[in-house]
């Protein structure tokens, strides 16, 4: 190729591939800047009518969408298996959790967002004071591929229930799935205008165009690196951001833990979905007194757990080929830095499929402990006290989920962990309870999805102060204010605020 030729031709078509076989599944036209702007303009028009509907009307439309997804569940789970690689059972579980959230958002929007009357205070007692939560308008949603329906739905269903229109860019690794879900909304509600929930397809450039477009908020789920780029780009128009990024979640196994249950949870939490779970188990800190039993039990369980593409597989292939190199680098680094693989090792990587890898005594500064691995691996470190376990668990740039196993001190330990959520004596419990907000801090992101806080993310408060009657001489914000009013205020203020000792 001559150096004058462009090195990257502009892509117009996105090819969707089966990660297990490399076979092409489908192609999708890529939305360029103009197409993104057109989708957002259409959504803006649709938002006006959708936002004006009553909560009960929106509830009806959202629940019809759920019913449509249930009717098409076999087809959808087949597509998830094909395009994402996960097992059909895991796909169904993901659908179930998605339906739970649609239902919660649809049924709770009114309760969470209805106008609230608040006290106007003594000085303004002639006023009625109200907070109305208004939809923002058009929400841009950018999704990842690892939970291609559950994760973006944490923004989509809640934004819709709050009265917004949604323009959704699915991951380039789950485009067919994203379009299927949006199509189901349209099929379930043929009488609704176009544009309430639409998709735009493409790679990162299409996502970047959505961030630059005339949207009212961007709700992003993906890596911290992309999240930072999105926040920087959104600053240009001061577009608010909701960022759900990665994690490096720790599990603490205390001396009084049910060791068998803890091992079961860690084995599953570390490897399910090939370890491609933002709040999956990546690090374990286990008390020295139960360490040997715990490690032996994790190893025993995972010896019988294997990836594959057939009905017997516990989990599927790595969805994104580039992630395999990251997993390899982390295993190499862990072994170079004093770690030992008690199960598997570098030869566990077999093309797109990675067998479970259990690493013990890995240096805390190695990539396997500091960076998100996103593969079916786990590091286990022995600790001598709960304080040490908590310090190590909290020593991370990420702060998303966490888990504690302790019969007597679970809550106490949970309260000392710096994370957005903690599951006590189970793994990932918080992700399956719709009313609980989900999200993290630092490199794990900004804001929350799910529950009432997740609904409020897609609204803006509108404060309304209504003067119900005038108090003669008490027009504080008027040039008609009298000297005697000020005299009265000077007497009242010490009574109201000057007696706190
Ligand atoms: P990614 O950051 O590579 O991509 C996510 C999305 O961003 C994709 O749709 C991609 O096309 C788009 N994108 C890429 N560059 C962009 C840009 N410059 N502007 C706008 N959009 C852009 O992440 P991924 O590999 O798809 O997903 C895996 C990551 O997601 C992991 O870090 C995982 O932990 C995280 N994740 C977090 C949560 C959570 O709720 N916190 C849930 C699932 C996954």
Structure characteristics:
alpha/beta, Aldehyde Dehydrogenase, Chain A, domain 1, Aldehyde Dehydrogenase, Chain A, domain 2, 2 domains, six-stranded mixed beta sheet, binds nicotinamide-adenine-dinucleotide, oxidoreductase, Ald_DH_N, Aldehyde_DH_dom
CATH class of the largest domain: Alpha Beta
Q: Could you give the distance between the termini?
A: 80 Å
Sheet with the most strands, sense and barrel status? 7 strands, mixed
The secondary structure category is alpha/beta
Question: From the 3D coordinates, which CATH architecture of the largest domain would you assign?
Answer: 3-Layer(aba) Sandwich
Shape: globular
Counting DSSP E segments of at least 2 residues, the number of strands comes to: 22
Helix proportion range:
40-55%
Q: What ligands does this structure carry?
A: nicotinamide-adenine-dinucleotide
What is the name of the CATH topology of the largest domain?
Aldehyde Dehydrogenase, Chain A, domain 1
Spatial order of strands in the largest sheet: 12-15-16-11-10-18-19
Q: Ranges with pLDDT <50 over ≥5 residues?
A: 1-7
């Amino acid at each position: 190729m001559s150096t004058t030729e462009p090195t990257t031709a502009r892509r117009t078509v996105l090819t969707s591939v089966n990660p297990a076989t490399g076979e092409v599944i489908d192609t999708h036209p890529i939305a360029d800047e103009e197409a993104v702007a057109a989708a957002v303009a259409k959504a803006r028009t649709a938002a006006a009518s959708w936002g004006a509907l009553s909560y009960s009307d929106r509830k009806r439309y959202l629940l019809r969408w759920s019913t449509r997804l249930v009717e098409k569940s076999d087809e959808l789970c087949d597509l998830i298996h094909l395009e994402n690689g996960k097992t059909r059972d895991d796909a169904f579980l993901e659908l179930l959790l998605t339906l739970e959230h649609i239902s919660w958002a649809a049924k709770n929007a009114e309760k969470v967002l209805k106008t609230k009357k608040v006290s106007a205070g003594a000085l303004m007692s002639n006023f009625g004071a109200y907070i109305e939560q208004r939809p923002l308008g058009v929400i841009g949603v950018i999704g990842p591929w690892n939970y291609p329906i559950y994760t973006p739905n944490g923004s989509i269903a809640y934004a819709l229930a709050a009265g917004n229109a949604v323009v959704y860019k699915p991951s380039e690794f789950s485009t067919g799935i994203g379009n299927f879900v949006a199509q189901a909304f349209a099929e379930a509600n043929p009488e609704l205008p176009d544009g309430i929930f639409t998709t735009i397809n493409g790679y990162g450039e299409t996502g970047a165009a959505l961030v630059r477009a005339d949207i009212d908020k961007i709700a992003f789920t993906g890596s911290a690196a992309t999240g930072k780029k999105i926040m920087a780009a959104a600053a240009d128009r001061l577009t608010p951001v909701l960022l759900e990024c990665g994690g490096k979640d720790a599990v603490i196994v205390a001396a009084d833990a049910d060791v068998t249950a803890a091992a079961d949870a860690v084995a599953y939490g570390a490897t399910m979905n090939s370890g491609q779970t933002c709040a999956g188990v990546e690090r374990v800190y286990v008390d020295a007194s139960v360490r040997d039993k715990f490690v032996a039990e994790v190893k025993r369980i995972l010896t019988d757990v294997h990836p594959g593409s057939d009905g017997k597989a516990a989990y599927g292939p790595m969805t994104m080929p580039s992630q395999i190199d990251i997993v390899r680098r982390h295993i190499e680094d862990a072994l170079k830095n004093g770690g030992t693989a008690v199960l598997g090792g570098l030869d566990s990587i077999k093309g797109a499929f990675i067998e479970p890898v259990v690493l013990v005594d890995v240096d805390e500064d190695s990539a396997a402990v500091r960076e998100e691995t996103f593969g079916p691996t786990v590091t286990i470190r022995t600790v001598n006290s709960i304080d040490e376990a908590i310090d190590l668990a909290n020593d991370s740039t990420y702060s998303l989920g966490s888990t504690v196993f302790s019969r007597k001190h679970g809550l106490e330990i949970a309260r000392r962990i710096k994370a957005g959520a903690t599951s006590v004596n189970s793994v990932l419990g918080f992700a399956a309870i719709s009313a609980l907000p989900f999200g993290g801090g630092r490199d794990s992101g900004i804001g929350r999805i799910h529950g009432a806080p997740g609904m409020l993310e897609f609204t803006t408060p509108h404060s309304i102060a209504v003067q119900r009657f005038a108090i003669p001489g008490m027009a504080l914000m008027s040039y008609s204010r009298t000297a005697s009013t000020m005299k009265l205020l000077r007497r009242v203020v010490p009574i109201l605020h000057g007696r706190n000792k």
